[in-house]
Specification:
With 215 residues, the protein is an alpha+beta fold. It has 4 helices and 9 strands, in the order αβββαβαβββαββ. It has a 9-stranded antiparallel β-sheet.
């Protein structure tokens, strides 16, 4: 019994010693990826107002809940950037992975990538900023659409933990309430973004929700 306690203590000490290095590695891994460029126009206690630069996105629209659509779409989008395209080239990974209700996405993108009234979520990877529609490879999977997204201004709320369906709904509702109370005019378009790989634990996960603002 005493021997088992010593082994448990040694494991605990080793884990505690390794934890800072492991966390540093996770954060370094997350920080090395390119993110969409934006400027901050306003900082409020519960949200920020950001103006994002135009971007290119690879998008897939899937039925189901937020969690179901993200899981299904991620495999398709990852296949595209890791060689599932005409020249079989690899595209640099970026962050975050973002998703919008499919019926809302129509007003936000050019060209339109989902039919009016489509159900589910449109999940997207932002393409590297050195790419253009002309230089991006054509996806082998016809579900992947390459879309030019114009620059827009958004109310943005940060949150940690797992972005479950319930959590996402609550964060979007909270942001909407706070933004309206702050005198902002919201349009019917929202985005949920996750910045970390699946193995990052909840307390260290970085997520955001956005509501589109009227010009």
């Amino acid at each position: 019994m005493r021997r088992m306690r010593w082994i448990a203590m040694l494991i605990a000490l080793a884990t505690a010693a390794a934890a800072p290095a492991l966390l540093t590695g996770v954060f370094d891994m997350a920080s090395k990826y390119e993110e969409p460029a934006y400027t901050v126009a306003r900082i409020a206690p519960e949200f920020e107002v950001r103006t994002y630069a135009p971007t290119l996105e690879a998008q897939v629209t899937m039925p189901g809940t937020y969690s179901q659509a993200v899981t299904a779409s991620f495999r398709v989008l990852a296949g595209y950037i890791f060689g599932g395209n005409a020249p079989r080239s690899t595209i640099a990974m970026t962050t975050p992975v973002s998703a919008s209700p499919a019926s809302e996405r129509i007003a936000m993108t050019t060209p339109v990538s989902a039919a009016p009234g489509a159900q589910g979520w449109t999940v997207s990877f932002t393409m590297p900023s050195d790419k253009t529609l002309a230089t991006l490879p054509v996806a082998n999977d016809p579900r992947v659409q390459l879309v030019a997204v114009p620059g827009k201004t958004w109310a943005v709320r940060k949150f940690k933990g797992r972005a479950t369906d319930k959590v996402v709904a609550g964060e979007l509702a909270r942001l909407k309430q706070d933004a309206l109370a702050g005198g902002l005019t919201l349009l019917d378009a929202s985005v949920v973004s996750q910045f970390n790989p699946p193995w990052v634990l909840g307390p260290w996960r970085r997520n955001e929700v956005r509501w589109l603002l009227a010009d």
